[in-house]
Amino acid sequence: MSGKTPALKLTAAAEKKNINSVRRAFLDAVKNFTYSEELLSSVEVCLVEWVENIIKYAHHGTAKKFLMKVEPGQGTLTLRFTDSGGPFNPVKYQPPELSARFSAGLGGKMGIRSIKALCASVKYRREKGKNVVTMKFTEKPPGC
Amino acid sequence: MAVKVFESAQGKFLMVMDLDGSVDISAVPELEAKIKTVEEKGFRFLILKLRDLEFMSSAGWGVFIAVKHRLMEKGGDLVVAEMHANVQRVYDLMGIEAMIKSYPTQGAAVADFSGRGS
Questions:
Q1: Phi, psi of B20 (to 5 degrees)
Q2: Which residues have C-beta within 8 Å of that of residue B70, sequence separation ≥ 6?
Q3: In which residue ranges of chain B is pLDDT below 70?
Q4: Distance CA A69, CA A78 (A)
Q5: ipTM of the complex
Q6: H/E stretch holding A65
Q7: A65, A106, A142, B7 — which has fewest CB within 10 A?
């Protein structure tokens, strides 16, 4: 437990049609906070990539639900996802080399890589048959 | 659909497609279909204008990479122009510039293509 009050606690079916509305709900929940555009853009990318991951792999399009919590902090923002799909630890996952895939005309396999590059930290735990993924974002100090 | 696509032919082989909105996996089938239709009309040089595309997940980049690969086999190409800052961030981060060329303006992309038989 983080002890922080979530700005948003949302449960949604893991369906493609819900991705845009989940992203919009996030943007609406943080509109009164003074986060930089860069941080919000990073969170949007990670949010969508992880929800797409849940839809594609954790539930294989079977439309089970996932929970998303958005926890604002001082210069930080935490996203926490819980889903009941098969175990998948993004922290341990090693994405393949992209240049060979690109040359072969293959996209994909970029989502987890994006998340790891954009988050200050990603944590995973398996709890009561559920994946719990916590992504933390921080504002960059001036000059970085 | 979360993304709207506006098409503008520039000669016989070059098409400019202006994307407006956002692209995630839910928009991919329709985006693929629109590009496929353009390809079937014989356009083999595509400029995708992304100024008004406020968001795109890696699924969208996957579509562009596959299309580019297909077009290159036909002697064509796909480039992007006027990228929205949010979209540019992932482009830079994933090293997509090694595969898909980016131009600051549509004019610069057209000028480059004009020397390549478009």
A1: -130, 125
A2: A105, B39
A3: 1, 117-118
A4: 8
A5: 0.86
A6: strand A65-72
A7: A142
